Amino acid sequence: MINLSDDERDAIKELFNISVGNAANSLSNMVEDRVQLSVPNFVLIEREQAATYIQEHSSNRISAILQSFKGTFDGTAVLFFPEEKSLELVRALLQEDVPLDSLTDLEQDSMVEVGNIILNAILVSFTEMLDMDVRSNLPQFLSGNCYHLLDKLFSNQEKGSESEIKADDPVMILFVDFITGENAIKGYVVLWLDGIALATFRHGVKKLLEQ
């Protein structure tokens, strides 16, 4: 069971609120139009429950941008949208009439660029506020069945980890609305942290609260 104090939850929400604001500014500069991102709500649940939880709150098929990071603590960040909404986001950002039945290489590249901007802005912002440092790897585009894709992601994390991965290791899920013009598109940011990474993250939050 993962328990956070009320002070920790408030501090984490404020950290991500500032980080998401920075991501919105970066996106606005990219598309030369105002992009608003809502104040994120978040849940912290056990890894074995994550794929099922996400599918229940999203859709059967998703488009996702995955970016692993290393530094003061290691983890993986994933930005994803229900597949049909990701196409709407590309249309809104590119201001082009992209067909909603498929993603071409151009649209995939655009999604990766959007994901890279958002995930990096979030990671850099909150790690700087916690006086930590992380370095991100190149982002990857993924699409397909929500449960199978995320279950595969967590399984791959287990195989690639040097430490023992447990079913009750934490997954943090942020719910964010992307608003561009008349479009309001709900996206999700998933942060996968093992037990050691979460302990480091919480230590940074506690130090921030003590200031």
Give the secondary structure arrangement, pairings included.
Blueprint: H1 6-31, E1 35-37, E2 41-46, H2 47-57, E3 61-71, E4 75-82, H3 83-94, H4 105-129, E5 134-136, E6 140-145, H5 146-160, E7 170-180, E8 183-192, H6 195-210
Antiparallel strand pairs: 1-7, 2-7, 3-4, 3-5, 3-6, 4-8, 7-8
Helix pairs in contact: 1-4, 1-6, 2-5
Description:
- This protein has a single domain, classed as 3-Layer(aba) Sandwich (Chemotaxis protein chec), CATH 3.40.1550.
- It has six helices and eight strands; from the N terminus they run αββαββααββαββα.
- The protein has helices at residues 6-31, 47-57, 83-94, 105-129, 146-160, 195-210; strands spanning 35-37, 41-46, 61-71, 75-82, 134-136, 140-145, 170-180, 183-192.
- Strands 1, 2, 3, 4, 5, 6, 7 and 8 form an eight-stranded antiparallel β-sheet that branches.
- The chain is globular.
- The two termini are 28 Å apart.
